[in-house]
Amino acid sequence: MFRRLFLDHPKSVGESYTEHFGVASHFGLKMMWGGARCTLHAVLPFMFKTAGSDTITALHAELVTKRNAARAEQTQITTVEYVI
Predict the structure, then answer these.
(1) Is the pTM of this model over 0.85?
(2) Tens digits of per-residue pLDDT, 41-75?
(3) 80-19-4 Cα angle (round to 5)
(4) Burial letters 12-48, b for 16+ CB under 10 A, else e
(5) Cα–Cα distance between 63 and 78 in angstroms, integer?
(6) C-alpha–C-alpha distance, residues 62 and 65, integer Å
(7) What count of other Cβ atoms lies within 10 Å of the Cβ of residue 83?
């Protein structure tokens, strides 16, 4: 039960529980900061005009970079090169 609740998902994305905690917290805090700026923009439209899209773009780029690095690492692990 503990493994299923706390370890299966981090393992499925190639992270330990601690690594996953750090990455998920990092993303969550960035989303909260972006959300706060969007809310302030709602009240004061002249402020943070692109805060929402900037936050989404940055998080997407970070996620894609991390995902591609993990795929490249997995590909390298499963690829066998023969040198004669």
Answers:
(1) no
(2) 999 999 999 999 999 999 999 989 888 887 777 77
(3) 90
(4) eeebeeeebeebeeeeeeeeeebeebeeebeeeeeeb
(5) 23
(6) 5
(7) 3
